[in-house]
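It is worth pausing here to work through a concrete case rather than discussing structure prediction in the abstract. The textbook approach is simple: state the sequence, then state the predicted structure, then interpret. We follow exactly that order.
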Amino acid sequence: MANEVFEAVRTVLAVREYQDREVPAEVVHRIVEAGRLTASGSNLQPWLFVVVRDRANLRELGTLVRTGPYIAQAPLAVVVAYEKNSRIGISDASRAIQSMILVAWADGVGSNWAGFGGLDGVRRKVGLPDTYEVLAVIPFGYPRRALGKGRKNRKPLGEVTSAERFGTPLE
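Step two, the predicted structure:
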């Protein structure tokens, strides 16, 4: 039996080049809804998501995120922030990002995590209160070129997985 979630995890790749094509509103809503529905420690949900679609704002975000100049060419980005005083904020926001990336990929929309720290300019740009820290800006869009779905350079399972105790092979 096919497992669509596993297939998305198996095939998702980082996308940094996007078609000049809008992402439909229903897909955008499904992406952020996936973030909202992600499991959260003690159900605290210490995150906020800001959807950015305005081209001028996307260009500015591309200049504010050192690791993500390609945000400027995306038709959409989601700014993901977490409550600074939350001990689980980074973890929960990271989980939400992964949910959004996988749901987008299942809809044919590519993305890539950009940023990690040093994003105060982004926080100010999107008007988040100082009680929040921006974890990442995730650009989304339809990939400009075909990508080799499923072809990943990963260590073999036996190198990264043990059974019961480190060094015991998983059978």
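Step three, interpretation. The CA atoms of residues 123 and 134 lie 6 Å apart. The beta strands are 47-52, 76-83, 110-111, 132-141.
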